[in-house]
Specification:
With about 120 residues, this protein is mainly alpha-helical. About 35% of the residues lie in helices and about 10% in strands. The radius of gyration is 14 Å and the shape is globular. It binds iron/sulfur cluster (2 copies). Pfam families: CxxCxxCC.
């Protein structure tokens, strides 16, 4: 397992979870991820990517919400857990993410090659 993969697993564990409004996906859209995170996601064709992008959607958003929830990228996990990425519906964990963890997520994003999910 690469160093980046270990960091991703560590950060995943330390971003608090919370219950979203059932069926809501208002914060989903085109997002980027590192190649390590991409390797954990199912392959999508160029046509599927183009169709999703045309509608400013994420290619993994299905009729029932995120279809890759267990493997969703760090930026999706961070959303709603910090005042800097607030849920528009006021949802979030009891305790926001530790600012150091948030910083580590942004550092990982800034120091890895990011591609459109
Ligand atoms: S974080 Fe908020 S906007 Fe995003 S899916 Fe959950 S409830 Fe909806
Ligand atoms: S990976 Fe899932 S949670 Fe993230 S933007 Fe796409 S559909 Fe939404």
């Amino acid at each position: 397992m690469s160093c980046t993969s270990r960091k991703i697993d560590h950060l995943r564990l330390h971003i608090p979870r919370f219950d979203c409004i059932p069926g809501c996906h208002d914060c989903c859209g085109p997002v980027t991820a590192s190649s390590e995170e991409m390797s954990r996601l199912p392959h999508k064709s160029d046509a599927e990517h183009a169709a999703a992008l045309d509608e400013l959607n994420c290619v993994h958003l299905g009729p029932q919400g995120c279809e890759v929830y267990d493997q969703r990228p760090l930026i999706c996990r961070l959303f709603g857990t910090t005042p800097r990425l607030p849920c528009p519906h006021g949802r979030g964990p009891d305790e926001p993410v530790d600012p150091q963890v948030e910083q580590q997520v942004h550092r990982l994003i800034a120091t890895t090659r990011q591609v459109l999910v």
